[in-house]
Amino acid sequence: MKIAVLGTGSVGRILAARLAELGHDVVVGTREVAATLARTAAAGRDEPPFAAWLDANPTVALADYAGAAASAELVVNATNGAGTLAALGQAGAENLAGKVLVDVSNPLDFSAGMPPTLFVKDTDSLGEQIQRAFPDARVVKTLNTLTGALQADPAVLAGGDHTVFVSGDDAEAKQAVTSLLESLGHRDVIDLGDITTARGPEMYLPLWLRLWGALGTGQLNIKVVR
Amino acid sequence: MKIAVLGTGSVGRILAARLAELGHDVVVGTREVAATLARTAAAGRDEPPFAAWLDANPTVALADYAGAAASAELVVNATNGAGTLAALGQAGAENLAGKVLVDVSNPLDFSAGMPPTLFVKDTDSLGEQIQRAFPDARVVKTLNTLTGALQADPAVLAGGDHTVFVSGDDAEAKQAVTSLLESLGHRDVIDLGDITTARGPEMYLPLWLRLWGALGTGQLNIKVVR
Questions:
Q1: 8 A C-beta contact, residue A128 and residue A203
Q2: N or C: which end of chain A has fewer CB within 10 A?
Q3: C-alpha angle B191/B197/B202, rounded to 5°?
Q4: How many A-B residue pairs are in contact by the CB < 8 A criterion?
Q5: Which parts of chain B have pLDDT scores under 70?
Q6: Which ipTM value was assigned to this complex?
Q7: pLDDT of A79-102, one tens digit each?
Q8: Mode of pairing for the β-strands spanning B163-168 and B138-142
Q9: Which residue of A has its CA nearest to B198?
Q10: pLDDT-based confidence at residue A43 (cuts at 50, 70, 90)
């Protein structure tokens, strides 16, 4: 499948590499291709500049947000939550219309330090904001409850015996995303309901952050026991 | 141990009965003893009036909030979240001082219908509000992530192979509560940290509510896989 992964951060990179490894035709979307390739500083701990990463992942292409989305059948939003609506605006409503838009972002607000708070919650969610802003996209919220590494390859933790969620208004889109999740190794995908149910997994983040703090690792997930 | 369970609703009843069964000396606290005993209407689905419940649980005593707290070594707050601070005020700061105060309540706001929202979140929590209002109590937030039935007897779900949390500023109080939880059958108790970490388990409630909706049962919990 032709997949656009919007976002050049660690989550975008890990998902793009894994989807390419599974045989998908993957293009990463960024704001400005030239600027992204010109950066020479390391992007983060253990993260090379994007150009070096791209050299090491030669089957992945790079395009601007609009170009990446235009060519794709399915679009993954792996941009920073605070910049998501702007990034999707640059991708263009016309390039998202009718397409499955997989939203893995989180509405994290780091302005008051750590741990971050949520800039939208409880009576609304980032997933819903995206669906309202792009009514013709078929938004599915998922995977925001995991590190990028576990999103892309859940089997590295307990053989994948833990749970992820899908929320969205379009049943076919959720089914397509569930199949994609299963191809990554997710063994327990719970359909929470319409896009308003994205409030649940987004509001789980404060617990996830504190579990990371208490356990000293982000290599964790929850399994829903029932 | 002498334990006061504040609250005559389903969670209070279930915890009181189970703690009595384990051999503790349990008194349930209510606002007005006479009014509580005078109610003849069923308290809820499958719930008899409190007087009938008390007749069926003869080892449990009933007192007003202050009387119950005064006689107890450990106090459980199982009142409705919206009424918690008022109820604890009636229990009296002097009757809570120095005692472990186990808070199992949730800051649920039903004013806009179902599912409820949270009346405090993200930058504060009900656990913190209680600790600030009663600085001499040793508040431990726990069990708010479960139905009363699973709080009291976790083994009925998957033999108890799932997780609960403790948050609080007093390490000894958390250790005492962890031991009490283990005596109920809780096999995995994670210490999240100080009382501010209560924001995590309280903000998990919106996910829990949607899991209940999606799965059609409240007999569920999460296991933290790590």
A1: no
A2: N
A3: 105
A4: 117
A5: none
A6: 0.96
A7: 999 999 999 999 999 999 999 999
A8: antiparallel
A9: A207
A10: confident
